[in-house]
Amino acid sequence: EVQLVESGGGLVQPGRSLRLSCTASGFTFGDYGLNWFRQAPGKGLEWVGLFRSKTLGGTTQYAASVKGRFTISRDDSKSIAYLQMNSLRTEDTAVYYCARVDSSGYDSPWGQGTRVTVSA
Amino acid sequence: DIQLTQSPSFLSASVGDRVTITCRASQGISSYLAWYQQKPGKAPNLLIYAASTLQSGVPSRFSGSGSGAEFTLTISSLQPDDFATYYCQQLHTYPLTFGGGTKVEIK
Predict the structure, then answer these.
(1) Tens digits of per-residue pLDDT, B70-85?
(2) Contact (CB, 8 A) for A98 and A110
(3) Which of A27, A37, B13, B16 has the greatest number of C-beta atoms within 10 Å?
């Protein structure tokens, strides 16, 4: 079964850092790109960033709201992707999801999400 | 950024009803559109991709149509399991963007 599991969320003070993990199973992780999304409480979905597969260059791309503060990396040997979040702001409070970019180019499946709360 | 406008934002319907949700893009996006279903406390689940292709395992009562800047998601006969929030997503241009969502509730 193709599965993604996020972890690492929690309560953090503004200005501090947090690293989320996305652990994959059931497929060859390195063959796929990975997107991170987030959803603030009671709000809609927002794209955070992308790490393309090696086949497509292994490059990253970020939303303007997180560029320069967030960094996506991946360890294909461990089937894990990371979202390093620095200089966190209260507006970064959300459930964070990772999603595989499947062979059709679309995001499926998504992980169950991990909650990040940025508050003093 | 490409803006996606979903309508309606809220919909009250009965089991067995035919339901249609519209998603309009601020510019043409060809067929690079997906539809998701999200239930409370759960991750979004891909229903339709490439505007009209049914994701594997999704019931055939769901269908998508459209291209360019106007798209629709149709549920032919609403079932109890379908009460949820639905989002459209464009994948034509980064940043990826979503519509504001349509919450489908029981009448």
Answers:
(1) 999 999 999 999 999 9
(2) yes
(3) A37
List Cβ<8 Å contacts ≥24 apart for A66-71. Answer: A66/A92
Q: Which residues in chain A are contacts of B46 at CB distance < 8 A?
A: 106-109
Alpha-carbon span B45 to B39, nearest angstrom: 9
Average pLDDT over residues A37-59: 95
Closest CA to A98 of A13, A42, A25: A25
Q: Which residues pair with A9 in a beta bridge?
A: none
The continuous run of DSSP H or E covering B66 comes out as strand B62-67
Distance, CA of A79 to CA of A50 (rounded, Å): 16
